[in-house]
Design goal:
By secondary structure, the protein is mostly helical.
Length: 295
């Protein structure tokens, strides 16, 4: 088979760009990890760049895992992520399925209404007042229920149902006497694994990383997610949180510990969600491409 002129050069450019992009993505993650497991002195004097100077895990053990609030932060985050993702997934599938049916005469009008909500909202103060009026203030559900449905997820799921699932399957099931809910559960959902994986990952990452509304709507530290702890560390709250534990150390080590705590907090905050992504990657890519090519 003859090789077309220019193909080797194009391959070199593509692979070079891929390697460069990989380095740009991976290096910051490794840098944070290396900083978190190096000695505080090396972190304080900026001696860690491409490799940790030692395997130092005392900051994990003494200053984070020994903190009784860490478990509470994690449990709150897991509750928010699991509950929010589950509710969002169920409501998205139900809404998108109804809007994808050609025999639903109001589908296009409702779809237009949903799209409008992506560009216009009531604002921060009306949202806060509404959450307060329904009695959700200072509860974990305050950052779950108001975000139970995403317009973008509905659009993606509706597009997938219309473009990737043959209408003949639906018609055959109707002829066989299947109900709409039976069609949804036995045909639509099993054939929608890619888009379900995409929505699950998007929702899980969104709920796991959310901190803005938690800062506003949750005042009780025992109900706050792990991201609030991370924000406290990154904004200088580590001196108040851990001051008694490191106050008797020399200045260089104390500065190193305070600096290292930021990297340690980042690692324990993002590690769980990074661990989940590889298992959903192939579904994620397939679902995104389907939603992007057909709209």
């Amino acid at each position: 088979m003859a090789i077309k002129r220019g193909e080797p050069g194009i391959d070199i450019i593509v692979y070079s760009l891929s390697v460069l992009c990989s380095i740009l993505v991976v290096f910051p993650l490794l840098y944070v990890l290396f900083q978190s497991i190096s000695t505080p002195e090396a972190v304080a004097f900026r001696k860690v760049l491409f490799w940790p100077d030692a395997l130092y895990l005392q900051s994990y053990r003494d200053y984070l895992f020994a903190n009784p609030l860490i478990i509470s932060y994690y449990l709150n985050t897991i509750f928010i992520a699991v509950t929010g993702t589950s509710i969002n997934l169920v409501l998205t599938i139900l809404t998108a399925y109804v809007l994808s049916r050609k025999d639903f005469v109001l589908g296009n009008y409702l779809m237009a209404f949903i799209v409008v909500t992506m560009f216009f909202s009531g604002g921060l103060i009306p949202f806060y007042m509404q959450v307060r009026n329904v009695g959700l203030m200072n509860t974990r559900l305050a950052v779950v229920l108001p975000f139970s449905l995403s317009a973008w997820n509905v659009i993606i799921a509706r597009t997938y149902f219309q473009s990737s699932i043959p209408e003949s399957l639906h018609e055959s099931a109707i002829i066989d006497g299947a109900s709409k809910i039976r069609i949804l559960l036995s045909i639509i959902v099993p054939l929608s694994a890619p888009i379900i994986a995409v929505i699950t990952l998007w929702c899980a990452v969104g709920f796991w990383n959310s901190y803005f509304w938690a800062m506003i709507l949750i005042q009780d530290t025992r109900k706050a997610p792990i991201q609030i702890f991370l924000v406290t560390i990154l904004t200088g709250g580590e001196s108040r949180t851990f001051g008694g534990q490191v106050g008797d150390q020399d200045m260089s080590k104390r500065v190193g510990v305070y600096e290292q705590l930021k990297y340690v907090a980042i690692v324990i905050t993002v590690a769980p969600i990074l661990f989940v992504y590889p298992f959903l990657q192939r579904y994620f890519i397939k679902g995104v491409m389907i939603g992007a090519l057909k709209g």
